[in-house]
Amino acid sequence: MIAIGMEGSANKLGIGIMLHPKDGSPPQVLANIRHTYVSPPGEGFLPKDTARHHRSWVVKLVKQALKEAKVTVDDVDCICFTKGPGMGAPLQSVVIAARMLSVLWGKELVGVNHCVGHIEMGRLITGATNPVVLYVSGGNTQVIAYSSQRYRIFGETLDMAVGNCLDRFARTLHISNDPAPGYNIEQLAKQGKQLVDLPYVVKGMDCSFSGILAAIDGLAKQWGLGGEEKAREDEQKPVDSTTAADESLESKPTRADLCFSLQETVFSMLVEITERAMAHVGSKQVLIVGGVGSNERLQEMMGIMARDRGGSVYATDERFCIDNGIMIAQAGMLAYGTGFRTPLSESTCTQRFRTDEVFVKWRD
Amino acid sequence: MEEYKPPPLPSPFNNTTPPPTLLTQGAEAHLYKTISLNPSIPAALKIRPSKPYRHPILDRRLTRQRITSEARCLAKLIREGVSVPAVLALDWEGHGGSEGGWGGAWLMMEWIDGPVVRVVLEQWEAWMKQNEGLLDSSQIENEEARVRSLLRKMGSAIGVLHKAGVVHGDLTTSNLMLRPYAGASDAVNGTGSPSMEGDVVLIDFGLASQSNQDEDRAVDLYVLERAIGSTHPRSEPMFEELILGYRDSYKGAVSALKRLEDVRMRGRKRSMLG
């Protein structure tokens, strides 16, 4: 069985082709290509611009994916697309492309929940059997565990997603959005030494990030670290901040210190709620998925926590962590295998689609 | 994978006889059974080791904040007559162990006998699954009535807690215990279905805080509702009973429950019908 997966719920347009061999041997990735809409520093990606990007690239990417996978249209069994959750306009532009291909080629459609796509791809790549899943990205922050045919949400953010918090702070500091704001924060944070005091907001298994963003934005303003000018200034003077930071704890924080403190604080919160979910369900495996999951500091912290519990952490690299097409193909094919179809008349998309709404027929 | 070893015990617990036995490893703390002063007095010892994944400054701040707030809440609740374990001793500076302290903190509490509610409900759900076919409708009703009365007791225990001006912060069925009535045998009612007799005791106040706000109370109930939904799917439909028990337990309950309605609507990307 071969499926095409089409993903475009945020600023990444991903097309992937997956093969599930008939003899039951492990699924193979035939093609996994992605094109990202990058906005200028200091700005986020707007739905209308992102949708325009997806519309202008989708045909090119599908052609390229078929070529890379060395398959023809006849080999394809179904077309899987992201039904939600995500940004409305980008979702819509991809669903239209999926519908068009379905009618053009006479292939069946499978609508996929984006979060379930991440989970299934993570399980496939890492081989984790029944992990507690931390799904962290620019639009979602959830701690998930599987129980009787549903991926149940144990904890989630009460306001903004953790990736959104990082991205927006990158905007405050005018950090480049290429390849991703979170990646550039991570690199800058490596030079940070001093931990500034930030709120730490965990409520049971839920957490909240908006107050932290407001606090750190305030600190950036107080120390005059925000804005384009400061970003350029810091770029010109190479790393001599090491000597200054060692002087005393009361010294003025640098941009790197703020990135460092933000990461340390929000990641500690995430590791804490994940640990709580693990203790609650008695699981020893953690799987990290979503764009923020490719952050090596988060993976390291999660690894230390899991080791202290006698367990292990499963994480993937940016090819599978960050939004992609094959995860949609993988989850779609699992559903397709159980007889699930999305008729053309119901092939809509939605901004709100919770992980626990999906009936997971393919697991026991 | 390496075999798991719990972190070394802080002094003086590294040389008591008999040595403390590890009961559970929670998310934040290790719980040991030990003795207090006299070998015949059992006690629960909660150790919060430092969390090596966190930045040391952040770790110290959180560990100290949480252990002291837990002890303060427990002390207050005991004064108010709420059924929680009493505080026996406390070290929040982490002086024990090696030189320069070990970074963690510990709290010693009264020993509570009995199972946690999670185990009781899990046993019950497993038992029901196994025996459902053999029971007639009145027996099923009878079984469900027992769970309802347990949920009602849980509701009023939480009400009494809130009335005393404390919110728990992490209510799950693992943090509620069932202490059998004095003198009662632990024998189940002859069928193999677990006993649900006893006092509900609240434990683990690691995330508790002192608050009289409806918001905090409602969040407490909401956390428990979701925990029951995700771990005890069969008992979930009876959550309403817990609400009833809660409603009758103190005056402010009604407005806290009204707030609960708002809190339920709050999670992200909830499907919004209508």
From TrEMBL, chain A:
GO terms for cellular component: cytoplasm; EKC/KEOPS complex; nucleus. InterPro entries: ATPase_NBD (IPR043129), Gcp-like_dom (IPR000905), KAE1/TsaD (IPR017861), Kae1_archaea_euk (IPR034680). Its EC number is 2.3.1.234. Keywords: Acyltransferase, Cytoplasm, Metal-binding, Nucleus, Transferase, tRNA processing. Binds 1 divalent metal cation per subunit. Gene3D superfamilies: 3.30.420.40. Pfam families: TsaD. Substrate binds at residues 135-139, 167, 182, 186, 295. One of its GO terms (biological process) is tRNA threonylcarbamoyladenosine modification. It comes from the Eukaryota. Its cofactor is a divalent metal cation. Residues 29-329 form the Gcp-like domain. It is an enzyme of class 2 (transferase). It catalyses: L-threonylcarbamoyladenylate + adenosine(37) in tRNA = N(6)-L-threonylcarbamoyladenosine(37) in tRNA + AMP + H(+). Residues 227-238 have a biased composition (Basic and acidic residues). It is found in: Cytoplasm; Nucleus. GO terms for molecular function: metal ion binding; tRNA N(6)-L-threonylcarbamoyladenine synthase activity. Residues 227-250 are annotated as: Disordered. Belongs to the KAE1 / TsaD family. This is N(6)-L-threonylcarbamoyladenine synthase. It comes from Penicillium nalgiovense.
From TrEMBL, chain B:
This is EKC/KEOPS complex subunit BUD32. Keywords: Activator, ATP-binding, Chromosome, Cytoplasm, Hydrolase, Kinase, Nucleotide-binding, Nucleus, Phosphoprotein, Serine/threonine-protein kinase, Telomere, Transcription, Transcription regulation, Transferase, tRNA processing. GO terms for cellular component: chromosome, telomeric region; cytosol; EKC/KEOPS complex; nucleus. Component of the EKC/KEOPS complex composed of at least BUD32, CGI121, GON7, KAE1 and PCC1; the whole complex dimerizes. Pfam families: Kdo. It is found in: Chromosome, Telomere; Cytoplasm; Nucleus. It is an enzyme of class 2 (transferase). GO terms for molecular function: ATP binding; hydrolase activity; protein serine/threonine kinase activity. The lineage of its organism: Eukaryota, Fungi, Dikarya, Ascomycota, Pezizomycotina. Residues 17-274 form the Protein kinase domain. InterPro entries: Bud32 (IPR022495), Kinase-like_dom_sf (IPR011009), Prot_kinase_dom (IPR000719), Tyr_kinase_AS (IPR008266). The keyword Nucleus applies. Its main location: nucleus. One of its GO terms (biological process) is tRNA threonylcarbamoyladenosine metabolic process. The keyword Chloroplast does not apply. It catalyses: L-threonyl-[protein] + ATP = O-phospho-L-threonyl-[protein] + ADP + H(+); L-seryl-[protein] + ATP = O-phospho-L-seryl-[protein] + ADP + H(+). Its EC number is 2.7.11.1. Component of the EKC/KEOPS complex that is required for the formation of a threonylcarbamoyl group on adenosine at position 37 (t(6)A37) in tRNAs that read codons beginning with adenine. The complex is probably involved in the transfer of the threonylcarbamoyl moiety of threonylcarbamoyl-AMP (TC-AMP) to the N6 group of A37. BUD32 has ATPase activity in the context of the EKC/KEOPS complex and likely plays a supporting role to the catalytic subunit KAE1. The EKC/KEOPS complex also promotes both telomere uncapping and telomere elongation. Belongs to the protein kinase superfamily. BUD32 family.
